[in-house]
Amino acid sequence: MDDRKWMILEAIVREYILTAEPVGSRTLSRRYDFGVSAATIRNEMSDLEDLGFLEQPHTSAGRIPSDKGYRTFVNSLLESGRKLNDFTTITQEVTSIYTSKTNQIHGLLEETTKMLSKYSHYTSISMSPDIQQTIFQHLQLIPLSSKQVVAILVTDSGIVHNQILTTPVTMDRKELGQISEFLNEKLQGKTMQEIDSNLMRELEADLISRYNTLSDIFRMLYTDLLGDVSRKLQQVFLDGTSYMMDQPEFADINKLKTVMSALEQRELLYNILNQNDQDMQITIGQENSQKEMQNCSIVSATYSVKGRPMGRIGILGPTRMEYGKVISLVQFVANILSKILSEQDE
Amino acid sequence: MDDRKWMILEAIVREYILTAEPVGSRTLSRRYDFGVSAATIRNEMSDLEDLGFLEQPHTSAGRIPSDKGYRTFVNSLLESGRKLNDFTTITQEVTSIYTSKTNQIHGLLEETTKMLSKYSHYTSISMSPDIQQTIFQHLQLIPLSSKQVVAILVTDSGIVHNQILTTPVTMDRKELGQISEFLNEKLQGKTMQEIDSNLMRELEADLISRYNTLSDIFRMLYTDLLGDVSRKLQQVFLDGTSYMMDQPEFADINKLKTVMSALEQRELLYNILNQNDQDMQITIGQENSQKEMQNCSIVSATYSVKGRPMGRIGILGPTRMEYGKVISLVQFVANILSKILSEQDE
DNA sequence: TGTTAGCACTCGCTGTTGTTGAGTGCTAAC
DNA sequence: GTTAGCACTCAACAACAGCGAGTGCTAACA
Question: Which of A249, A246, A344 is nearest to A303 (CA)?
């Protein structure tokens, strides 16, 4: 793959991203100056097709990039390392939106999703922190009625979960206080991941020996709040789905429906956002494990609190996506979000 | 408007809802037996058009119902009072879905929305309770770090809100305990609506005189959690948006986009669901105050806890909607939901 | 050997035209 | 008041031609 081929491929990708029309050799030679004629470009394009970087919708049309073509383009973007797009101009705006928001992580993520859509004109997704990665901070049990207890779990980075537990027997305030005090002492500083069934069994035994009392609520706490319920509690935020309809590739209502239906399934969203756990993750077309999404690309990044990765935010669009712009934006917003979250946790 | 006209109008509405094709006089006379010829029907249809119940897409097409036509049809459905559609067959399924769910209202509403879509094949919406209508039950302040406090508000019917407050000065556990104990005593049993700025000012004075201490956190509690933040805290659940794409009236991607964009605006969803506060509310086409929604109809009903209306659930579709089925379903689900919510609150 | 001009060919897109058929309104007879 | 008959309308569909952007191939050129 020589230099000229590379330049032509890049030009075709850029041109197609811009126009959404198959790119022909003449158009290309008119708009770009490669110092060779259309005929030469034609030969190069034919080669590029043989190599799998381009595709031809039909014989007498121009070429469009294949997934492999986009992939090469994107890799080169990433390797080049130069500033792709400059979003520092909106720093002010973004931070002001963030700080105006309640300092609850869900509110921040909701705003994040909105902003990603607003600035990219693509559909965007955020995912609330994987609770397993967070650190236990505080547990509080509040009696609500004779048989109902609200359990409040606070982990670091401002995540608060609550759960109503209905106990078979009446619990008095003192018992509840004992249990929560006990757990607060034992679980302090542990990551939620470390709080597994083994640990809880130990603690249960310990609790019985200490207070000579055993309660169902202890087990309920584990199954409903502390245990591996992370997936259940992880929220997905979605915005800008209607931007999908601006894309000519989704003019066909059936293609559109395939994608839109997929976007309604939380589990599926979770999967497309977590294909691997690289910090910056770009999935192009067929690379996507979810077949409903194989006409789409997803650019996502992790956000973190004090260096610990917590969740992902991302942008979803057709494979013909403005990768340069989108990658910069996602990276930029993920950085600010991480900064805000880390600061506020102090 | 004589009996025969009425029968013809009803037949046209039913036929059009079924086929989505303009209904002609011959089709009608073939499928229904009015005992008169197509020509007579033709005359009647012409009259119905003059009266504003029907419309003609173009000269040589059949007629379709106007909004007024649908309205008449729907009113008669409601007045007739007879069982429109029987959904009792799915009672089992619905209750089992509900009881399998965590007894948190948000989880229930999420499931409700999913079910409404699943059984109706239309887009559906739910709205979490208007916190103003709920009754204060408990407030808890948990110190998180030296300057951060988690405020937990529990109101009746299992609604728990939490909010992280960042105080300018360090609060000790005792002070927090005093404030929450004080407020719990004073606010017990009040509806959130009653907790207004006047009451809070009184309480603030009272608190100062009692403990000779004043804290910013008191005011923050009001502005961020107790005060008129109901709209902010009210969540909207949406599901089945992709069913919109099955409707031939939205084959035009621009019409579709208008509606889908509207569905992304929470404020707007709130408005369309709360056009008035009748228990069962049906808004047809142009009756809708939101112009983006004037190609749509919305059928919604309140759900309540122990007779107190809390929020709404609803179904949204094209004006050519299966009103009979949808009305029954919404009513049915709202009833079960109310029952579950009222029981669980005991 | 790589590059280029020329040329025949392909094929989706667009616009025209004709046909079909469901539907209408009107009129006159029942 | 009802109905049969009839001329008329008009969207939808299919067939067809012309256009134009694009291709691959060939032969000539540096």
Answer: A344
pLDDT digits (tens, 9 = 90+) for B183-200: 999 999 899 889 888 888
Rounded to a whole number of angstroms, the distance between the first and last alpha carbons of chain A is 52
Between residues 202 and 231 of chain B, which touch chain A (CB distance below 8 Å)?
Answer: 224
Nearest by CB to residue B158, choosing from A104, A164, A241, is A164
CATH code given to domain A88-130+234-344: 3.30.450.40
Round to whole Å and give the CA distance between B310 and B303.
Answer: 6
Chain B residues in contact with A137 (beta carbon < 8 A):
144
| B256 and chain A in contact, CB less than 8 A | yes
B134-232, CATH topology level? Enolase-like; domain 1 (3.30.390)
pLDDT, residue B218, reads 82
CB atoms closer than 10 angstroms to residue B2 = 8
**Near-strand C residues (CB closer than 7 A):** A 4, 35-40, 43, 58-61; B 22-27, 38-39, 42, 45-46, 49, 56, 59-63
Domain ranges of chain B: 3-80, 88-130+234-344, 134-232
Find the residue in B nearest to A239 (Cα): B264
pLDDT tens sequence across B66-107: 999 999 999 999 998 776 788 988 998 899 888 876 667 888
CB contact under 8 A, A162 and B145: no
> pLDDT per residue over B137-179, tens digit each?
889 888 877 778 888 898 887 788 888 888 878 878 888 888 8
Residue A162 has pLDDT above 90, yes or no: no
